[in-house]
Specification:
heterodimer; A: 548 residues; mainly alpha; two-stranded antiparallel sheet; 4 strands; globular; B: 353 residues; two-stranded antiparallel ribbon; 14 helices; 3% strand
Chain lengths: 548, 353
Amino acid sequence: MSLFTDLDLRKTAMKWLVASLITLSVSAIGMVELFGERFVITGLFTMAQILFLGPTAVFAYRAVQETPQAKQWLGMLKALLIGLGVGLAMVALVWLAQNMDVRSVFINVSPKLINILTFSGSSSLTLLLALTGAGLAGGALALMPANLRTALLAGGGLTVLIGLLSEILSERLRALFSSQLSSAIFASKALQLVPAIVLFVLITAFVYLRSIGRIKPVGIRLPAGRESLVRTALISGLLLVLPMLLGSYLTEVTNNIGLFFLMGLGLNIVVGLAGLLDLGYVAFFAIGAYTMAALTSTGSLGLAGLSFWVALPICVAVAATAGFILGMPVLRMRGDYLAIVTLGFGEIIRILALSDLMKPYIGGAQGILNIPKPMVGELALIRPEHMYYVILIGVAVAMFMSIRVRESQIGRRWMAMREDEDVAEAMGINLVSTKLLAFTIGAGFSGLAGAIFASKLGSIFPHSFNLLISINVLSLIIVGGLGSIPGTLAGAIILVGLPELLREFAEFRWLAYGVLLVVMMLNRPEGFIPSETIRRELHSGDEAEQAG
Amino acid sequence: MRDRLAKLNLIDLFLWVARAAILVVILVGTIKTIISNPYSLRNWEDFIIFGIAQGSMYALIAIGYTLVYGVLQMINFAHGEFFMSGIFASTSAVAIPLARSGYLASHPIPSLLLIALTSILISVGIALLTERIAYRPLRYAPRLMPLITAIGASFFWQYYFRGLFGSQVIPFPDIPQLQGTVSFLHTQVLKTHILVIFVTMVVLVALNFFISSTRPGKAIRAVAENKDVAALMGINVDRTISLTFATGAAMAGVAGMLYALVFQQVHFFMGFIPGIKAFTAAVLGGIGSIPGAAVGGLFLGLFESLGPSLFLQSLGIPAFNQLKDVIAFTMLVLVLIFRPQGIVGERLKEKKA
């Protein structure tokens, strides 16, 4: 009887249920199958294995963590039960798929999936053992000393990341160092086995030894009082030569990150500082892009044939004006209505852009073609390495403006308004004009990004401007941290850069964003790199509790 | 008068101009149409009946928004996905196998009931899961946070169901007994439209009974009135909120079934536009009010079905039917700007609004 109470069956069963549902889901929606093609270590270890063993390990880990220290064997028993339970659920899935026509309903329960789940066709027993093992491994992780655990996770995580990015890393190694080194470490799209083990051991050992103080961090001694100057100089230098280190493809990825970062900076002012959830943000991006296209295109829809540099400020001005005009009627309403109205505006603009009504002016579904590249003297900026500098300048200007505005009186007004509109109004802040300013500046940034985007692509279509762009920008500022500029950059790198590099997973990009938005709001609403004020505000309650 | 003029600032002026411009467009378009008279009476009857059928679906979906808003003062952005998930899963997993086995053609009534029941159950299940995981922990958080989890949940479910059943448009099987028209009040009406309107009426009456006369219904109303006092009266608030979500999702499940019968296809993205339109309907009727949702839904359905032909066509707009959604979205924007308390609803108290 006491064993039953100690085992805390209800909680353990709940963990088993959730872990099983997640594992079954990732299998049934096709993620496992897709990830099965992506080797981390060539011929041996794929992303699929991480995906269907991972959840079990995580829940077993949490089960052990919740068990009192004195009864660790009980914790391991729970871990074993969870692993075994998930294993049985998955074996049932395999059995069903082998004996019934599951695939006519769940299209992704394919023979290939079963092949992956049973480790290339060996029996279901292997699957059961593997999941039980994952449960035990997760439990064992929880029993380890914290620093060893961190070291192991860091080693494992980084090795997997390197394995995932093998294709690009090996190409870069070949270009910058030697092709022998590259082929010694990487197979065509994954790590070789031995280098993977070496990498894992090295990283783990390094992190572990550092945590127990055997390796001292090597500090570069900067001249006293000039640290920030030196740091700025180093970062600017690195940014200037970055395209040479990265090569064409990675520079193109960096450019996309830059454009989304630019939009993120704008939305950060609107959502992060002023607290106005704008879901139609893509509209201003579209307006910037279409203005650029109409002003510069050499095709039949071009109006003025201006050069990129002349058109650029006009695009920003047009987008900002559009923000001002659209903002006027909507900014008096409350937060959630605002979100839906802006969403409606975004959709109206997209449908109009697609319709025959506007076709004579902006080309309907065929879009506007023949947008020339920016020219510097006689040089057309055709290559991604050239566009990189255009985007870099845009980002630098926008960052400078963001920081200055945030630190100014206007920035403080926005934040006051975000915290409590009524109080802000009582303090003499004119809500409507303050909101309008945020909306206008945000729209301007987005228009700038759109204008560069149009010229970078050379042709634009209404399909490039759907709701998903708004959601993408929103996700990246939330993941990074609302109101935080470094957070926005980190968010752009993770949510735009990573999916560009892992193209074959694109199908699940939006699913992942959905999960990410929910998980971030539940567990880390301040984002990964929070801005100081938001962090203090969200955790002031915790501190008060601890103090009391 | 002078006093009012002095208060008129730039933004009010802008709003008045916008109002006037839209009114002029509608009036001029309508008058021109009436003069040129491009349609027969028969056409107009078709438009009206289609509008009512469409509006019935909007009404059913809108009830979900309104109920949840009533108890939580929150816009459940993922409600369109509750609508999609039920019928999308039920079509793939029940309707198509039934049609393949021939049972659907030989026994249409039990089959349709089974399909509807699955649709309702799945919608309710998805709603309960979403409420438990994404909304409940954030019940007392700043308003922005549940709104963001709702957007996240919405995307998650769309792409989850896309993964389960595929990204293609899945045709809903034909039901021979439901094809064709019947004569009704001197005009020919599609059988599916009659079914849609009839089912909606029955469901609305049942819902009204449930909310007004049963114990759980009273609990919902009590929680909507005041959560703390309801809790003191011995009402389990968490469970009642779950029940509210479940009721709304059940309505969405029924609406999904009707949608599949009328449009004969389902798709993982089908929840988005009806979801927003139903939200518009809920606001039109005054969000928080159930009769309002029904009236708003019907109004929007009619407006949308008549609108393009009534006032866009004669303005010389090419392919005016492409702009059907623009009408609904414009209506959404206008209602939220000018009458957020709705057309039939009373003015909400400042605390709730």
